[in-house]
Amino acid sequence: MKKILQDLSFAETEELILSLGEKKFRAKQLYEGLTQGKKVSDITSLPKALKEKLLEEYEDETIRIKETFYSADGTEKYLFEFADGHLVEGVLMKYKYGYTQCVSTQVGCRMGCKFCASTLNGLIRNLSAGEILAQILAVNALHKADVKSGAGESGRAVTNVVLMGSGEPLDNYDQVVKFLRNLTAPEGLCISARNVSLSTCGLVPKMYALADEGLPVNLTVSLHATDDETRKKVMPVAKAYKIEEILKACRYFFEKTGRRYYFEYTLIDGENCDETHAKALVELLKGKPCHVNLIRLNEVKERELKTVSDKNAYRFLGVLEKGGLSATLRRQIGVDIGGACGQLRADYLNGENND
Ligand code: SAH
Fold first, then answer.
1. Which of 172, 279, 170 lies closest to 217 in space, CA to CA?
2. Per-residue pLDDT, 263
3. Out of 45, 116, 129, 344, which could bridge 89 as a Cys pair, Cβ 3.0 to 4.6 Å?
4. Pocket of ligand 1 (CB under 6 A)
5. Structural domains in the chain?
6. What share of the chain has pLDDT > 70, as a percent?
7. pTM surpassing 0.90?
8. What is residue 98's predicted lDDT score, i.e. its pLDDT?
């Protein structure tokens, strides 16, 4: 595979252009074209000779939307293909204030969570910063017309980004941080870090590192249990880091950024969602500057685990609220198009979605 132009910051693009003996303003044309989601060969403002020089070393098409799936509720799901043929998925959720895109940070995942489809074949490879960014550039380009009808500020459809697709963002730390810097840079998409949520299974040392980056994103931790023994049953990462250590790292993140943090708690029938678990969760998080997002397990057919009934999900939420926690039960969206991480790619690789 050749190099990826979207990996470069604006300053690095300028350096590249100057190193090719070109005038500086060409960097702006190139960067703008890429930010609009164009292939290099389609950027008409650039001279042909420069494009040829660039394409000797860099990919022309970093990403391609191989397929789009439309949910009855408006949610869209994409199967993206990179230059080497690897696939990841992404989701676009449409809200009145703008669009939220869920991006992937790795092809596959090596964290091994028992309920998750992304991890079924382990980690294939990390995505580069530019490959993560290109997912958003492609979706903005696809939805250019929606901006005229009111979606999105600043002329672009995607206003919010969540790193909740396939992969563990903090297991691909350097590329993810580079992506966050390029995503929030004024010369590029200029999305505020406050509109970005990074979800981690709890890689504690990297949570500290992220707190020190000066990137005030919303930190979300996938908790899914209230004690280490139960957590180990569904999340192998729990063998490496205790819940107590995770909470300390969250506290540090709060002190450094002033941002409250979030927990995701997937409700799995018979495992973690009876009243005692809810009460234990209240005990664990009471008084902390955090919010809990409850998620109903999206059943993955390769896994045995079963989802919670609506009644029990609301009962669980009720206990949290009564205990004084800030909590919501995530509404189910896009279930008809394989909403959970990695399901679409897994189905595709099994030949179930590609006819
Ligand atoms: N690796 C990151 C991002 C993963 S996906 C993390 O672990 O946080 C975002 C959320 O979806 C995580 O909380 C993850 O645990 C949850 N998730 C994964 N598969 C799921 C499924 N089948 N049903 C419900 N939630 C799921």
1. 170
2. 97
3. 344
4. 113, 115-116, 164, 168, 199-201, 222, 264, 266, 295, 297-298, 300, 340-341
5. 5-57 (1.10.150.530), 63-349 (3.20.20.70)
6. 91
7. yes
8. 83
